[in-house]
Amino acid sequence: MNLSARSAWRSLERRWKLYHIGDERFRFLFDPPPADEWVSVDCETTGLNVGRDEIISIGAVRIVGDRILTSERLELLVRPSKGVSADSVRVHRLRERDVAHGLEPEEAARRFMHFVGSRPLVGYFLEFDVAMLNKVIFPILGMGLPQQRIEVSAMYFDYKNRRLPPHLKGVTDIDLSFATLLEDLGLPQRDAHDAVNDAVMAALAFVKLRHLNAPPA
What we know:
A hairpin with a 2-residue loop joins strand 2 and strand 3. With 217 residues, the chain is of the alpha/beta class.
């Protein structure tokens, strides 16, 4: 599919989604995104099963150019319908009483969508976070989040793969763990498994990898 055909398809898809949107107040999600702006997002959950588990916190931070606007972050606690297991508490340190007065999932999702707007989403293991968010957002919109998604580990893979000699490309395993990625890029590591901290660290990696993967001037 050539560039003009892809553009026409995206335009048709956008019109179809706008026609079928469940809540007209969220039409702004389909606006052209602000230039050089993104939102890095991370969710903490009761587990890793998209079908069974629930979100208990959402962290997001805006990126403008090379700046990470931590003063404009989104930090939400979400009240799950079921208890928080001891295993999940050991990961994110959020106890049942910590989230007992959190937002209802639908309210948290609405606040998240207003914070993000039409900006592309950035994250590490982003597919999982978006899948968890879409469980709550689909009943509101009648569809999932429409924003472009940028996976930090894929950017890192491209960066490392380009540096391999030709005979090792596609043969050598590249460690895509978050800790390895951050250490290799020389980035500071905050406490992991805190939604805002993880969003900030993913944003730092995104900004650096954008420059590392940019074509030579």
